[in-house]
Structure to design on (276 residues):
DNA sequence: GTAACTGCAAAATATTTGCATCCTT
DNA sequence: AAGGATGCAAATATTTTGCAGTTAC
């Protein structure tokens, strides 16, 4: 795990520091997406708020994570798959937000349905967010 | 126009005030969705920031507008169609964000594709946000 | 050793709440 | 007249920025 995390950081020309390693591990260890607040809590208050902002910003810019739009307009982040390249994401699955437990889950096996756009529109990314009740809360 | 706006307010048991009338008109007059900031600007600095917050909140609660998830995590609002009822939205169309002009457009005629969820998941709402280039910017 | 990263402080923004006053019904 | 809505002030919360000290390479 540690090696994978370090490898990702190195590959993206980010120096390997405690906060980056820890935060990236959090993403790997959590099923779903994380909010800034989640990270603060789960990191055990260990890092400065500001460091978390900057770390997430760096990860976003490198394409390590992406953010997920939610209807409630909270800010969520999730790991990108390997084929995400800098500034260009292929986040090809559906996100599910459970209204009971509040978790956001990436449904890796549910692929994004194709959307027919009106003439003249060019699609570069499609985000699908389903909310409801997850299988654990049912 | 004025009559339509007033009718909507009355139907939702909201008293007809300057700010509500004006803000609701803004939504009718704009093609796409509006952010809090857009409204402040377009209203000509006429209303208190707080009033705008409270007005949008009231409209949301009554189901007059809904908010749109965006990848950039800004908060956008758009008019609901007539079949939105209090606290329960049928926001059954795709939202399109143009990366060129930055506008968010409701594609009324593109319906939400159905999403097959894994066993145990219950869906109550599906949001689809497509980003790319709109027909005017192409 | 140097460049990059962190943490603290503080600034800039954004959002919420309380309350007295004003407006709609 | 009564209840709701507004505007102001102020309390909170969120995000950004500057800078000195520390760490990775």
């Amino acid at each position: 795990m540690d090696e994978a995390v370090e490898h990702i950081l190195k590959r993206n020309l980010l120096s390997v520091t405690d906060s980056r390693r820890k935060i990236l591990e959090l993403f790997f260890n959590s099923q779903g997406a994380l909010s800034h607040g989640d990270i603060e809590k789960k990191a055990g208050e260990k890092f400065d708020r500001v460091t978390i902002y900057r770390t997430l910003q760096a990860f976003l810019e490198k394409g390590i994570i992406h953010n997920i739009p939610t209807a409630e307009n909270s800010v969520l982040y999730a790991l990108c798959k390997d084929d995400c390249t800098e500034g260009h994401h292929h986040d090809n699955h559906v996100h599910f937000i459970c209204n009971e437990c509040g978790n956001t889950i990436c449904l890796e096996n549910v692929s994004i349905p194709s959307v027919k756009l009106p003439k003249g529109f060019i699609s570069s990314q499609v985000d699908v967010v389903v909310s409801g009740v997850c299988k654990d809360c049912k």
Q: What stands out?
A: Helices of chain A lie at 2-11, 18-29, 36-42, 49-62. Chain A has one domain: 2-132.
